[in-house]
Amino acid sequence: MTGEEKSQQEIEQALLDKHEQEVNNETPQAEEPQQETPPVQEEAPVQESKSELSDDDVLSYIKKRYDKQIDSVDQLFAEREEAEELPEDVAAYLKYKKDTGRGFNDYVRLNKNYDEVAPDQLLREYLVATEKGLDAEDIDTLMEAYSFDEELDDESTIKKTKLNKKKAIAKAKDYFESEKEKYGAPLESSGSSLSKDDQEKLEAYNQYIQESNSFEESMKKRQEVFLQQTNEVFGSEFKGFEFTLDEDKKVTFSPGDATELKKAQSDATNFLKKYVDENGVIKDAAGYHRALAIAMNPEKFARFFYEQGKSFQADSTMRKMKNTDMSMRNTPEVVKKGGMQIKSLNSDSGRGLKIRSRKN
User: What is the distance, to the nearest Å, from the Cα of residue 306 to the centroid of all Cα atoms in its chain?
Assistant: First the structure.
């Protein structure tokens, strides 16, 4: 209510009070009830304007402003409290996302049992979570600090590397357990306070977590088998890769050092990164399919280049044979005159006149 409106109402109220006092001092007449009753009843709400807003006024305003039917102020506050309550699982995830900025997949991984995770995988996930701004190749470089070669490194270096790795793994476990305690989903959800729809969503969420954990375990086992067999391929006996050129001929070729090959080929993403950009969009489709075709048909390409080599060698030999001087040399003609013997020589014997004396 503005100051101008309040002054107007105060003036009207003063006039009503004065009129009522004059009526009370006069002798009542038959017509007076018809004159004084209507104005007093019509202006009665003005006298209540000095009081505070009632509950009905608040609820009426909400109804007109937001088109929402509220029966009481208590119901209004109760609805607000209910709107702020979330399932514990959802609230935990929202807090995790707000504090860390990471997504749902990271949150699912956070809730798995890290005692069952392979040490190298645990250490790698720890570096990814704590070392900001690094890509997969950078993480591989950091992981090299925890690797050693039993054949090349001395015993002291191996012991120190194992010790550093053990300490790093323990630190990684402590980190993830702390994160799980801070953000982890509760073991049991208070489903009794959830609606049927929310309960179904919660059950679907829990099922997703179980399936994700199973998928993580499956991927971990596959990776362990892959790394184990990769180590066997690039062991001390590695001389190169064998190719069959024909029924009786096989050749062995090594494109590089075994250690470097193992490092590059232990992660398939190293191959893909050559042909895609940082967003995973392919940037060299021709190069990708060429490399993939060679990888899927190694024997065909080996035989092709072998045949090309033989053909090139044959052509080279034929060219050399064609360039050979096959012209016949004529026997020099000899003329005898006056006890002298004269012989005509070709250009191969040099230039000038040569005189030889015969000794008896």
Answer: 42
List phi, psi (to 5°) of 340. Answer: -110, 150
Rounded CA gap, 265 and 288, in Å?
16
What percentage of the chain carries pLDDT values higher than 70? 60
Q: What is the pLDDT of residues 173-190, one digit of tens each?
A: 888 888 877 766 554 444
Paired tokens of 50: 């000095």
- DSSP letter (8 states) at residue 330: P
Enumerate long-range contacts of 78-85, CB under 8 Å, 24 or more apart.
85/193
Classified as helix, coil or strand, 334 is: strand
Question: Do the Cβ atoms of 279 and 271 come closer than 8 Å?
Answer: no
Residue 323 in tokens: 């360039």
R_g (Cα) of the chain, nearest Å: 49
Nearest-5° Cα angle at 134, 130 to 137: 120
Do 147 and 101 form a contact (C-beta atoms < 8 A)? Answer: no
Residue type, 193: S
Rounded to 10°, the helix 136-143/119-130 angle is: 130
Q: Is 50 exceeded by the pLDDT of residue 32?
A: no
Give the C-alpha distances (Å, rounded to integers) separating 346 from 73, 240, 319, 349, 357: 130, 58, 28, 6, 20
Instruction: Give the three-class secondary structure for 166.
Output: helix
The per-residue pLDDT for range 223-239, each reduced to its tens digit, is 888 888 988 888 888 98
Q: Residue 312 CB: number of other CB atoms within 10 A?
A: 10
**pLDDT, tens digit, 9 for 90 and up, residues 63-111:** 776 677 777 767 766 655 555 555 566 677 677 777 777 666 677 667 7
Maximum distance among all alpha carbons in the chain? 195
Amino acid occupying residue 12: E
DSSP state string for 21-80 = HHHHHSPP-TTHHHHHHHHHHHHHHHHGGGSPPPHHHHHHHHHHHH----S-HHHHHHHH
**Domain residue ranges in the chain:** 3-83, 88-233, 241-316
**Secondary structure class of 123 (helix, strand, coil):** helix
